[in-house]
Design a protein that fits this description.
3-stranded antiparallel beta sheet, about 325 residues, 2 domains, DNA polymerase, domain 1
Amino acid sequence: MDKMASSELTQEQAQLVAGSEELVDRFLDAIWMERGLSQNTLGAYRADLMTLCRELAKGGKTIDQAEKADLLDFIAGRVESGAKPRSTARQLSSFRRFFRYIMREGMRSEDPTADIEMPRIGRSLPKSLSEEEVDSLLNAPNTDEPLGHRDRAMLELLYATGLRVTELINLKQSQVNFNQGVLRIVGKGDRERLIPLGEESQRWLKDFIEGSRMEILLERQTDYLFPTRRGDRMTRQAFWHIIKRYAEKASIRKKLSPHSLRHAFATHLLNRGADLRVVQLLLGHSDLSTTQIYTHVARERLKDLHGEHHPRG
């Protein structure tokens, strides 16, 4: 047992911990024999369970005597002290496995973890691009060339609207309304949404449609707004390669995803005080909780926000 931790306990509490520790070691031996787990995994189980043992000892209990209320108190204390949902979920998983073991061994008739819900772990997002990095990425294509002009218009549109990559590559000219300055998008679940276009993205789009798009197509025809050199619709993979190439050219070291500009669009709008429900509508999320994953990224960025660049939307 950890000497520093044991010194914080009374002699009686330390004896309770020692009794619990024997049981924990028996459990670890059993699961090691059954599953051949690595030393790291066994070490993590042991650390989780011994932390619980020490807390229970302060209330005069050994680990096999723990009730649901004891475990909820323990978890609540961890959360209040700043434990992340992922860490809490891992601990609860360790406790579940332990109590299933002692029930199997006939030491208990009920599982105190049975009705405790796992904490919700939000999807982790790729690191959001800063506004300076977005500017570098947008400036990376060589717009003197037709394909470079197309790529710049695509990147500008993505950052100005927060479109999904699939929505971008499937975009048709009929969905762009320059008179009203909006895009009409049919997203997931056939939900239609209108997205306002900023002046910058409208300018790039118009220039592209009136010039480089015709150069790329020559005599061919397609409804798709952003054709490839062959006059086809672009694939997700092809667009992903384009983003990676320009990120390298712009010296962006962060790990990007095809949706990095969508993430940047949402984060930068929230940085600037946009309402979460407005961002939800623009992104086409059916559930506000999906949009909320951006709020913690926005808060992080607010800590070191510099300059007065604005998202082009």
